[in-house]
From TrEMBL:
The lineage of its organism: Bacteria, Bacillati, Bacillota, Bacilli, Lactobacillales. This is ABC-type amino acid transport system, permease and periplasmic component. Keywords: Amino-acid transport, Cell membrane, Membrane, Transmembrane, Transmembrane helix, Transport. One of its GO terms (molecular function) is transmembrane transporter activity. It is a multi-pass membrane protein. Belongs to the binding-protein-dependent transport system permease family. HisMQ subfamily. Gene3D superfamilies: MetI-like, Periplasmic binding protein-like II. Residues 292-479 form the ABC transmembrane type-1 domain. The keyword S-adenosyl-L-methionine does not apply. NCBIfam families: HEQRo_perm_3TM.
């Protein structure tokens, strides 16, 4: 069997192991003796996942530079935790990660304007409907004369949040419409205001919230013919967590009995007005400062461990023993052949089922593992670039292979690859934004929070671009300084 075939076999085996592991985790049966409610009470904490970019359901307010989760859904979660006599712990992440977090046990329940569609019910349990608001379209006010309802959108571009009911309804009920899916509602609104889409499908309270804070927008009724599930939102749970679902349903019944939903919406409206009183980017400087801090932490730690892993991988690859070189080749090719976003999700949710890894730690692990594969190839290129005469001279002096590599080859290789390593560091700074998908704070995560809070689409993006440029430019100057020092030496 040739070397290329062996490498292919190793890659396929690695894929089979990972896919098989994911399948086993996904198919693990629920415990016959459901202890979900007891686990929450014994831990004393109810962990709730949400995506805080969907006012008035859930969003964040800036109180003295500190972030606080607020909104109707947050108030409901607080009431549920109060009834269970436990503390509430909120985990923020992207909307598309909520159900995965529930299934993998990262959170006890997910709340975030989630519609309990038949497809979602196959993979998660749901509470009773706690709110029914209906569906609207956001449009530019200047287009109000042309767009009246869904029938007016025939053949036009319609924006929806990816993986939501609004996306399914638009695809099904608007003939010849080109449905544009995006992950964040603020991105959709920005696309609407820049005429990239003709309308954005959202729930009525969300449409009303945007219209109240942006006079260039108008909300119109969708015109969809909806059943009960289409107009309702519920709380998602892991399959088989019946006792916890029943306890939450009792809280929902109590909330409806006391008619607390209108008060929750009213409170959300007050918070939204606080956010829009001062929408200057300077008012949110602590948000961006926090994002820069965590971006640097993730980047520095990931590059450090990435270099260590890269050295190990390249030494394995250069080994004469096939049982060391083949795994190194397979790992490098596999990691370089898969998106970092998928790797981040797998480390946090896949491996997280076996080991409860915090989001920040999971993000650093994933970025480090990814960086290690690229660094190993950079180092290998540097080693190959070292003149063969250096090896011959080392052997003539009686140096062992280990000493030759540590004292002669690697120092010269690092001098050769310093610019490439610098580029890898800069790339990691920019690519660290991917970890925001699992709720890790960094620049892009804070950018989306500020956009949702202030209803300003472009200004937060401009601030983030400037911050990334400052970080990258400053790092490149430092790297160039040390490169000149090495060349001088």
């Amino acid at each position: 069997m040739g070397k290329s075939n062996l490498k292919t076999v190793m890659q396929l085996l690695l894929v089979v192991v990972i896919v098989g592991m994911g399948s086993l985790l996904a198919r693990r049966p629920a415990h016959a003796d459901d202890q979900s409610l007891n686990r929450v009470k014994q831990s004393g904490t109810l962990t709730v996942g949400t995506a805080p970019d969907y006012p008035p359901f859930e969003f964040q307010v800036n109180k003295g530079g500190n972030q606080e989760d607020v909104g109707m859904d947050i108030d409901i979660a607080k009431q549920i935790a109060k009834n269970l006599h436990v503390k509430l712990k909120i985990k923020n992440m992207s909307f598309e990660s909520l159900l995965v977090a529930v299934q993998s046990g990262k959170i006890d329940m997910a709340i975030g304007g989630i519609n309990p569609t038949p497809e979602r019910k196959q993979n998660a349990d749901f509470s009773k409907i706690y709110y029914s608001g209906g569906q609207d379209f956001l449009i530019n006010k200047n287009d109000a004369g042309q767009i009246k309802n869904k029938n007016s959108l025939r053949g036009k571009k319609v924006g929806t949040q990816t993986g939501t009911l609004q996306q399914s309804l638009a695809k099904k009920d608007i003939p010849n419409a080109h449905v544009v899916g995006m992950d964040k509602t603020p991105d959709l609104v920005l696309a609407l205001k820049t005429h990239k889409v003709a309308a954005v499908g959202v729930e009525k309270p969300v449409a009303q919230a945007y219209v109240a804070n942006d006079h260039d927008l108008k909300a119109i009724d969708s015109g969809y013919k909806l059943n009960k599930n289409d107009v309702g939102t519920a709380i998602a749970f892991k399959k088989g967590n019946t006792s916890l679902v029943n306890a939450v349903n009792q809280s929902i019944d109590q909330i409806h009995k006391k008619n607390l939903i209108p008060q929750y919406l009213k409170d959300a409206g007050k918070h939204m007005k606080v956010n829009t009183n001062n929408t200057s980017m300077w008012h949110y400087w602590k948000y961006f400062a926090t994002g820069v801090e965590y971006t640097l932490i993730i980047s520095v730690v990931s590059v450090f461990f990435g270099i260590i892993l890269g050295i190990i991988l390249v030494l394995m690859r250069l080994s004469k023993y096939k049982f060391l070189s083949w795994p190194s080749i397979a790992y490098t090719e596999f990691v370089r052949g898969t998106p970092m976003m998928v790797q981040v999700l797998f480390v946090y949710f896949g491996l997280g089922v076996l080991v409860n890894i915090p989001a920040l730690t999971a993000g650093i692990i994933a970025v480090s593992l990814n960086s290690g594969a690229y660094v190993s190839e950079i180092i290998r290129g540097g080693i190959n670039a070292v003149d063969k005469g250096q090896s011959e001279a080392s052997r003539s002096l009686g140096l062992s292979k280990k000493d030759m590599m540590a004292s002669v080859i690697l120092p010269q290789a690092f001098k050769n690859i310093w610019p490439a390593l610098g580029n890898e560091f800069i790339t990691i700074i920019k690519d660290s934004s991917i970890v925001s998908i699992i709720g890790v704070t960094e620049i892009v995560y804070e950018l989306n929070i500020v956009r949702a809070d202030t209803y300003r689409g472009v200004a937060p993006i401009a601030v983030a671009m400037i911050l990334y440029f400052i970080l990258s430019f400053s790092l490149s100057r430092v790297l160039n300084y040390f490169e000149r020092r090495m060349n001088h030496d």
